[in-house]
């Protein structure tokens, strides 16, 4: 096992090398000395653990030999932000990464509107930090997921003017209406707002902004599909418009949807954000779990289909057995009994799928 200290970014890390397969928490408990189980779990929950450079909070995350674990002992991992709408993911003296819940704006749109910036400003004030949250990108009120805010003007200017060079991976996951036909692909067109502030697309330059979205279907049923989107550009309502263009709008989208709203929310979540630190140049990679409610829509439907298939086979087998017993007694010939049993099984199958 190898250990080394790294203070390049004013953050103390202890590096551990994985030599055998193990769940993450079990590995940490065995290899971090002089720390209580409660403290280690708190550090894990507080995004103080990296696995191969990515923050991980899953206690049972499977480790494999060769993986490199970084354990942060910075006090920032113990900071508490008490808000039902905003969860603190990462913080240093230059920026903060948060996970936004649905129902809150990214920044103020009115004097009394609930927004992430005001929540962060209040948090900075209460924690005696002489800074304010500077908005560098936005998520819609009803979109949840990861966001980054600058804590000073210098960081804000660097992020704002070099956003496309600094941010190298940004992904969303959505539940869309209907069954996706394609496993993956790319949508590229021009997006422009009309006078009613509705964004519409055009295959040719309409004076709007060019938008590129890459998509990958993670799971599908006849009713819903779980789709990952990777943004090459970041235009207003880009994913929502492009999903509607494919004929599979995001569920719960009142503006561009088809009325399909199984979760009573916009089913869009920004689950991955990767960028180079604007001051240190360090690779910063953050990922949140796909909302369980999103996965349940697909899993429940898949489970129901499996159960229907199981019931179908059991139904046919029982019908065939009954057919063999009856015709064996009537006809007295096994071959005839099998033939009539086959006919009954086919009729049973037709009945099952027509009247189930």
Descriptive overview:
The chain is of the alpha+beta class and 356 residues long. 31% of the residues lie in helices and 28% in strands. The protein is built from eight helices and 18 strands. The strands form three sheets. Strands 8, 9, 10, 11, 12, 13, 14, 15, 16, 17 and 18 form an eleven-stranded mixed β-sheet that branches. Strands 1-2-7-4-5 form a five-stranded antiparallel β-sheet, with no helix packed on it. It is globular and about 90 Å long. The protein starts with a strand and ends with a helix. Mean pLDDT is 84; it is low at 1-10 and 301-306.
Describe the structure concisely.
With 356 residues, the chain is α+β, with helices and mostly antiparallel strands. It is built from eight helices and 18 strands.
Largest sheet: 11 strands, mixed
Computed CA radius of gyration, to the nearest angstrom: 27 Å
Number of strands: 18
Assess the beta-strand content as a share of residues: 25-35%
Along the chain, the helix and strand elements come as EEEHHEEEEEEHEEHHEEEEEHEEHH
What is the subunit organization of this protein?
single chain
Shape descriptor reads globular
| End-to-end distance | 60 Å
Low-confidence stretches: 1-10, 301-306
Structural class: alpha+beta
Q: How many H/I helical runs?
A: 8
Arithmetic mean of pLDDT: 84
Helix content: 25-40%
Structural features:
356 residues, eleven-stranded mixed sheet, five-stranded antiparallel sheet, 28% strand, disordered N terminus
What topology emerges from the helices and strands here?
Elements (H helix, E strand, L loop, with lengths): L4 E2 L6 E5 L4 E2 H8 L5 H9 L3 E3 L2 E2 L6 E2 L4 E5 L13 E6 L3 E6 L15 H11 L7 E2 L8 E7 L2 H9 L1 H4 E11 L6 E10 L5 E4 L6 E12 L3 E8 L6 H8 L22 E9 L6 E5 L4 H40 L2 H22 L1
Parallel strand pairs: 11-17
Antiparallel strand pairs: 1-2, 2-7, 3-6, 4-5, 4-7, 8-9, 9-11, 10-11, 12-16, 12-17, 13-14, 13-15, 15-16, 17-18
Helix pairs in contact: 7-8
């Amino acid at each position: 096992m190898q250990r080394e200290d790294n203070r390049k970014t004013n953050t103390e890390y202890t590096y551990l090398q994985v030599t055998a397969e193990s769940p993450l928490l079990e590995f940490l408990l065995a290899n971090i000395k002089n720390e209580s189980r409660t403290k280690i779990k708190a550090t894990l929950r507080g995004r103080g653990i990296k696995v191969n450079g990515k923050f991980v909070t899953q206690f049972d995350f499977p480790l494999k030999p060769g993986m490199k674990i970084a354990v942060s002992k910075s006090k920032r991992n113990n900071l508490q932000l008490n808000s039902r709408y905003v969860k603190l993911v990462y913080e240093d003296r230059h920026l903060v990464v948060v996970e936004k819940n649905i129902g809150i704006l990214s920044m103020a749109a009115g004097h009394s509107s609930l927004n992430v910036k005001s929540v962060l400003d209040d948090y900075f004030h209460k924690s005696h930090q002489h800074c304010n949250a500077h908005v560098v990108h936005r998520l819609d009120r009803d979109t949840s997921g990861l966001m980054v805010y600058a804590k000073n003007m210098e960081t804000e200017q660097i992020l704002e003017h070099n956003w496309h060079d600094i941010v190298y991976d940004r992904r969303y996951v959505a539940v869309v209406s209907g069954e996706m036909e394609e496993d993956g692909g790319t949508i590229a067109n021009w997006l422009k707002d009309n006078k009613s502030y509705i964004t519409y697309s055009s295959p040719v330059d309409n004076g709007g902004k060019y938008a590129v979205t890459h998509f990958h279907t993670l799971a599908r049923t006849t009713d819903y599909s779980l789709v990952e989107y990777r943004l090459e550009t970041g235009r207003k309502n880009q994913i929502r418009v492009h999903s509607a263009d494919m004929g599979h709008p995001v569920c719960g989208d009142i503006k561009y949807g088809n009325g399909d709203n199984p979760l009573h929310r916009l089913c869009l979540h920004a689950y991955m954000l990767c960028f180079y630190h604007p001051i240190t140049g360090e690779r910063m990679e953050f990922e949140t779990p796909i909302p369980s409610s999103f996965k349940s829509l697909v899993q429940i439907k898949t489970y129901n289909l499996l159960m229907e298939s199981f019931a179908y086979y059991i139904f046919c087998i029982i019908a065939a057995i009954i057919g063999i017993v009856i015709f064996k007694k009537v006809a007295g010939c096994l071959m005839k009994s099998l033939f009539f049993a086959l006919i009954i099984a086919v009729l049973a199958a037709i009945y099952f799928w027509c009247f189930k």
